[in-house]
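Appendix B, example 12.
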Amino acid sequence: MSTTALTKPTYSYFDDVQNVEYIDLEPSLIQSCKDYNYYIAENELGRMSKRDKNRIGTHFMLNQIINVCKESDTKKIFYYREYIKYPVENMLVKRIFNALPTTIVYDTISFDAFLRELKYKVVKREDSSAVCFKKFKKFLKTTGLTKVEREFTENARVKFSLLP
Protein backbone atom coordinates (compact mmCIF):
# COMPACT_ATOMS: atom_id res chain seq x y z
CA MET A 1 0.00 0.00 0.00
CA SER A 2 1.38 3.39 -0.96
CA THR A 3 1.52 6.37 1.36
CA THR A 4 -0.81 8.34 -0.92
CA ALA A 5 -3.52 5.76 -0.34
CA LEU A 6 -3.17 6.32 3.39
CA THR A 7 -3.58 10.09 3.17
CA LYS A 8 -6.37 10.19 0.58
CA PRO A 9 -9.43 11.88 2.10
CA THR A 10 -12.63 9.88 2.41
CA TYR A 11 -15.84 11.25 0.88
CA SER A 12 -18.22 8.46 1.82
CA TYR A 13 -18.42 5.62 4.28
CA PHE A 14 -20.88 2.72 4.25
CA ASP A 15 -22.01 1.53 7.67
CA ASP A 16 -23.13 -2.05 7.13
CA VAL A 17 -24.59 -2.31 10.64
CA GLN A 18 -27.06 0.56 10.10
CA ASN A 19 -27.20 -0.08 6.34
CA VAL A 20 -26.58 3.59 5.59
CA GLU A 21 -23.96 5.54 3.67
CA TYR A 22 -22.39 8.65 5.20
CA ILE A 23 -21.68 11.28 2.54
CA ASP A 24 -19.32 14.24 2.90
CA LEU A 25 -20.98 17.21 1.17
CA GLU A 26 -17.78 19.24 0.85
CA PRO A 27 -16.56 17.84 -2.52
CA SER A 28 -20.04 18.23 -3.99
CA LEU A 29 -20.30 21.80 -2.74
CA ILE A 30 -16.87 22.65 -4.14
CA GLN A 31 -18.01 21.35 -7.54
CA SER A 32 -21.31 23.23 -7.31
CA CYS A 33 -19.40 26.43 -6.51
CA LYS A 34 -17.18 25.93 -9.57
CA ASP A 35 -20.25 25.29 -11.74
CA TYR A 36 -21.96 28.36 -10.29
CA ASN A 37 -18.97 30.63 -10.88
CA TYR A 38 -18.52 29.32 -14.43
CA TYR A 39 -22.22 29.84 -15.18
CA ILE A 40 -22.19 33.40 -13.80
CA ALA A 41 -19.01 34.32 -15.71
CA GLU A 42 -20.01 32.61 -18.96
CA ASN A 43 -23.42 34.30 -19.04
CA GLU A 44 -22.14 37.63 -17.70
CA LEU A 45 -24.61 37.64 -14.82
CA GLY A 46 -22.53 39.56 -12.30
CA ARG A 47 -25.24 42.16 -11.64
CA MET A 48 -27.98 39.87 -10.44
CA SER A 49 -30.07 40.30 -7.34
CA LYS A 50 -29.07 38.42 -4.21
CA ARG A 51 -32.27 36.37 -4.47
CA ASP A 52 -31.45 35.24 -8.01
CA LYS A 53 -27.86 34.40 -7.06
CA ASN A 54 -29.15 32.29 -4.16
CA ARG A 55 -31.60 30.53 -6.48
CA ILE A 56 -28.84 29.67 -8.95
CA GLY A 57 -26.56 28.55 -6.11
CA THR A 58 -29.32 26.34 -4.74
CA HIS A 59 -29.84 24.88 -8.21
CA PHE A 60 -26.18 23.86 -8.53
CA MET A 61 -26.07 22.46 -4.98
CA LEU A 62 -29.18 20.37 -5.56
CA ASN A 63 -27.78 19.05 -8.83
CA GLN A 64 -24.71 17.81 -6.99
CA ILE A 65 -26.81 16.24 -4.21
CA ILE A 66 -28.95 14.48 -6.81
CA ASN A 67 -25.81 13.24 -8.60
CA VAL A 68 -24.53 11.79 -5.33
CA CYS A 69 -27.88 10.07 -4.77
CA LYS A 70 -27.81 8.55 -8.25
CA GLU A 71 -24.49 6.81 -7.55
CA SER A 72 -25.91 4.10 -5.29
CA ASP A 73 -29.16 2.66 -3.98
CA THR A 74 -28.24 3.03 -0.32
CA LYS A 75 -29.90 5.35 2.15
CA LYS A 76 -27.71 8.30 2.97
CA ILE A 77 -26.81 10.49 5.89
CA PHE A 78 -25.10 13.67 4.79
CA TYR A 79 -22.30 15.39 6.65
CA TYR A 80 -21.76 19.12 6.30
CA ARG A 81 -18.73 20.86 7.73
CA GLU A 82 -19.75 24.41 8.60
CA TYR A 83 -17.31 27.21 7.94
CA ILE A 84 -17.77 30.64 9.51
CA LYS A 85 -16.24 32.25 6.41
CA TYR A 86 -19.02 30.87 4.15
CA PRO A 87 -22.28 32.18 5.65
CA VAL A 88 -24.21 32.12 2.35
CA GLU A 89 -23.26 28.49 1.70
CA ASN A 90 -24.25 27.57 5.27
CA MET A 91 -27.61 29.29 4.80
CA LEU A 92 -28.33 27.59 1.46
CA VAL A 93 -27.39 24.13 2.75
CA LYS A 94 -29.65 24.59 5.78
CA ARG A 95 -32.54 25.75 3.55
CA ILE A 96 -32.17 22.70 1.33
CA PHE A 97 -31.92 20.19 4.16
CA ASN A 98 -34.73 21.80 6.17
CA ALA A 99 -36.99 20.94 3.23
CA LEU A 100 -35.62 17.42 2.75
CA PRO A 101 -36.68 14.54 5.00
CA THR A 102 -33.17 13.08 4.99
CA THR A 103 -30.73 13.18 7.89
CA ILE A 104 -27.82 15.62 7.91
CA VAL A 105 -25.12 16.14 10.52
CA TYR A 106 -23.66 19.63 10.96
CA ASP A 107 -20.26 20.00 12.62
CA THR A 108 -17.02 21.98 12.37
CA ILE A 109 -14.60 19.05 12.18
CA SER A 110 -13.37 17.27 9.05
CA PHE A 111 -15.28 14.31 7.63
CA ASP A 112 -12.40 11.96 8.52
CA ALA A 113 -12.49 13.18 12.14
CA PHE A 114 -16.28 12.75 12.14
CA LEU A 115 -15.88 9.14 10.97
CA ARG A 116 -13.34 8.45 13.72
CA GLU A 117 -15.75 9.88 16.32
CA LEU A 118 -18.69 7.99 14.83
CA LYS A 119 -17.74 4.94 16.90
CA TYR A 120 -18.61 6.92 20.02
CA LYS A 121 -21.59 8.89 18.70
CA VAL A 122 -25.12 8.02 17.79
CA VAL A 123 -26.56 9.77 14.76
CA LYS A 124 -30.28 10.12 15.25
CA ARG A 125 -32.12 9.43 12.02
CA GLU A 126 -35.49 10.88 11.17
CA ASP A 127 -38.57 8.72 11.65
CA SER A 128 -39.16 7.10 8.28
CA SER A 129 -42.83 6.34 8.95
CA ALA A 130 -43.82 9.98 8.51
CA VAL A 131 -41.68 10.79 5.48
CA CYS A 132 -43.15 13.18 2.98
CA PHE A 133 -41.42 14.94 0.12
CA LYS A 134 -44.22 17.49 -0.13
CA LYS A 135 -42.24 20.15 1.76
CA PHE A 136 -39.26 19.60 -0.55
CA LYS A 137 -41.40 19.80 -3.69
CA LYS A 138 -42.96 23.02 -2.40
CA PHE A 139 -39.47 24.40 -1.73
CA LEU A 140 -38.45 23.58 -5.31
CA LYS A 141 -41.55 25.23 -6.74
CA THR A 142 -41.22 28.41 -4.67
CA THR A 143 -37.57 28.78 -5.66
CA GLY A 144 -38.41 28.20 -9.32
CA LEU A 145 -36.36 25.02 -9.68
CA THR A 146 -38.79 23.07 -11.86
CA LYS A 147 -36.04 21.22 -13.76
CA VAL A 148 -34.60 19.91 -10.50
CA GLU A 149 -38.11 19.01 -9.32
CA ARG A 150 -38.74 17.03 -12.50
CA GLU A 151 -35.44 15.16 -12.15
CA PHE A 152 -36.18 14.47 -8.49
CA THR A 153 -39.69 13.13 -9.08
CA GLU A 154 -38.69 10.96 -12.04
CA ASN A 155 -35.81 9.15 -10.34
CA ALA A 156 -36.76 6.56 -7.72
CA ARG A 157 -33.10 5.96 -6.79
CA VAL A 158 -32.77 9.59 -5.71
CA LYS A 159 -35.92 9.43 -3.58
CA PHE A 160 -34.83 6.16 -1.93
CA SER A 161 -31.38 7.57 -1.17
CA LEU A 162 -32.93 10.56 0.59
CA LEU A 163 -35.16 8.50 2.86
CA PRO A 164 -34.09 8.53 6.50
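The radius of gyration is 16 Å. The CA atoms of residues 58 and 125 lie 24 Å apart.
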